[in-house]
Amino acid sequence: MSEANEPTTNEAEPSQSSQSEQSEQSEQSGQSGQSGQSNQSAQSGQSAPQEFETLTSTYERLRHSTDTAELSEFARRPLPDKSDQAAFSRATALLEAVAGNPHTPVDDRIFLAETMPFPNVLVKLSVDADERVRKAVAANGDDKNWLVGRLTKDPVPEVRDTALRNKRTSWKMRLEGAQNPDVDAEILDFLSRFGVESEPDAPAILTSMVRRAVALNPNTGAETLARLAQDPDPVVVKAVRSRS
After folding, report:
1. 3-state SS assignment for residue 228
2. pLDDT digits (tens, 9 = 90+) for 154-180
3. pTM for this structure?
4. Closest to 212 measured CA to CA, from 189, 184, 240, 187
5. What's the pLDDT tens digit per position in 78-87?
6. Average pLDDT for residues 101-124, to the nearest whole number?
7. What whole-number distance in Å separates Cα of residue 35 and Cα of residue 244?
8. What are the extents of the domains in the chain?
9. Where are the beta strands (DSSP E) in the chain?
10. Nearest 5°: phi and psi at 198?
11. Helix or strand holding residue 30 (H, E)
């Protein structure tokens, strides 16, 4: 009986060994499959192309965007360093689209009008429907004289007066401002000091033309006229006397 049972025992051992080997092979196969999938995923992640939006596409998207949060974030985003010329040029070009979009929050448009030195951005903001934005452009010390000159003719007195006070405003624009019958006594008083108390180094003949125009403007106040009657240029004094 003992001898008869031994073959049975010997036959059972290979069966258990075979199951173990199959299990190990199955685990190895599973691990290999998982590893292969992981490698494929990693390779796929590495080789997947990142989306890049062209300048034109981004410009048009921002120009027509109604996403105020995105527009605000872009308006306040720090500019790239100028050493990275491509990134810097791209950012300033896109700011033009943001500045010209009426969905950009007004506070952000005012921020751009006050802080940006770029003509392409300021030109957009100089025709903004909100007079507060235009006033901020008019006060910007980085304005080109032709741009601030446009704003000296703005229909809103506060914008116009701010532009006339900007040091970037040419003498010609100030002369036209002094001749404008719609300007008030306060800005005329400011212009009456041109070349005497303010900007004394400006060309004398040009500044005296501005003061003479102030002297002849019907809106000039009595105190301003009294001071101009003592002007160092006799042409200005003569203009004051011609009013009486």
Report:
1. helix
2. 999 999 999 999 999 999 999 999 999
3. 0.75
4. 240
5. 999 999 999 9
6. 97
7. 101
8. 170-243
9. none
10. -115, 140
11. helix 2-47
